[in-house]
Amino acid sequence: MDFDTNNTTPQREAITFSATGSEYFRIWIVNLLLSIVTLGIYSAWAKVRRNRYFYSSTHLAGSSFEYHGNAVAILKGRIAAVVLIGGYNIAFQISPVVGLVMLVLMMAVLPWLVWKSLQFKLYNTSYRGIRFGFDGSARQAYKYFLWLPILNTFTAGLMTPFLHQRLKRFQHTQSRFGSSNFSFDATVGSFYKTYLLFFALLLAGFLVLIFIVFASVFAAFATSANDATKASGIFGAVAALYAWAFIVLPLFLTMIQNLIWNHTRLQQHQFQSQLTWGRTTFIMLTNLLGIVVTLGLFSPFAHVRWLKYRLEATSMLVHGSLDAFVAATGEQVSTTGEGMVDLLDFDLSM
Amino acid sequence: MQEDHAALAARYFDGQTSRLYHVTLSVRDGQAVLAGDIERSCPLGELHVSERSSHAVRKVSFPDGAYLEIANQAAFSDMLHDTGHRDGWVVRLQQSWRGALLATVATVLALWLSYQYLLPVVAKGVAYAIPQSVERQLGQGVLDFLDRHVFAPSQLDAARQQALRSQFARLATPGDSTPEHRIVFRKSKIGPNAFALPSGDIVLTDEMIELLPDDQAIMGVLAHELGHLQQRHLTRRLIQTSAVGAGAALLFGDVSTVVATLPPLLLDLKYSRDVEREADDYAIAMLRQNGIALEHLAQVFVALGKLDEGTPYLSSHPASTERVTRIRSAGH
Q: What is the pTM of this model?
């Protein structure tokens, strides 16, 4: 098919997110209460409710997404996760040998679980009645989630940007919408550039801060200030280092998310991501503050704010029409991995 | 069944292709009827309607995977109402502010009650259920670690160590059984200290022995630490903090791990004050049983109280004056 010849002006379709913090707060608090009184069993249903609400609130070109995940399947995964994680934590306290055996076991099953989770997550997402899917093989999953990370530890982390690119390429090229695959063309070089910029900024800030700190500490000692001033000087310096890290981290997040989505396509339709550093930092800082001040009650609002910003910064350049996608046939997906990966807290969404 | 509703505009997808069909939905004789780009009807009982919410689009799915999106929420709610469709109780709770407020109060109450009453009971049960061999290994690593980083061998001569050990061994203990224990002497870089590890090791620093006025006071300290062992305090504490940590991570984990580590820290401080009192009570009972005046134990806290308030031993413990008063009043 040749789309470019007869359709030259793409139409920009922005993602919109209609969920609100106040409505999610009500869903969240009821979910929380039921999860507590059922000793966590309800949390699987809570997850389905939350996802249904968020997916149905996400619109692209006038249609919304849909979540089809099955609560019983998620619950089974969560139970398996509790057993495995519990066993893992106890194992090292029993003896180093048992601990080591558990560690190896965990490493052996994790890539498989992540792989299953990717399949589950995508298969249970639909748009315009067509389900997403994930093609990648178990062998590839072991390569990208086990062998390459292990290899990376031997290179003192120098391979990280390369690994990140390979992982995203794997994830995005193996994902499909119906029978149409996504594609990904960000280069390894562009990942290295982003990581380098991040580290350069982080380091520069630290050097400046350390310089200021040393100067002030010397000043404090020279004027023979009392211990309280010295302590508060050092405390202030540490706080400043944390603050700097907290400001630079959103920059990295912004750059990497823009990089990834600006190089992802679904057939001829190109994605665009336009997150900005300032706004990301502002949202992250105010969210953290809000959660601490309200002892956690703000967290559903924080969640919606962050999700809304991230989703709405994304748009799709539609070449032609979105009407031509076809469902894949004969799909079957196992659900083992999902609850597990949930509990282990992997976020593969970025 | 009412039939006088105007047909609702809807978007239909067939589940096979992404093609959008503009249709209208109406209800006739217990059947949902679609007209427009596609004509279709289906008995109401076979359809699935997504949950009500004020900001998400509602969907009606057909058994074969086809579905409708309906933007006009209010009109659709009316239509559903007329067909006898009712929201589940969870949805009704979620959609009303009163329900949400009620859920908030109930959640806070449930969290507080389970922290206050359920968690200690569970932690105690689990602690006593853990085989002693496992508990032993738990503490062994800690002592090895401390020996490497904090402690030096004790300067106390072996005869004196042995004398203290056998003096303590001669004392009767309250309760049905005496927990297995071993008294270890160490020289520390952190000043006067005494503590019990789940392995059964009671560590006493040279500095602590120097600080105390007489051997009876040392017996008081040892009795206090034996109380910790008897009640399996450290194991219980480990279980509790990890439970609170896991709970906090589940509550706030998706937003920030930094925030999630705070609650266990804060709640742990209160816990330690409670267990110190429990251990004091054990020591009081033990001294009494052996006819040792409680004043010896009180002197321990008088001596500790004279030290700088900032030492680590004191920070997580009840104020010394409070404990002295408590011990003295137990003597009457």
A: 0.78
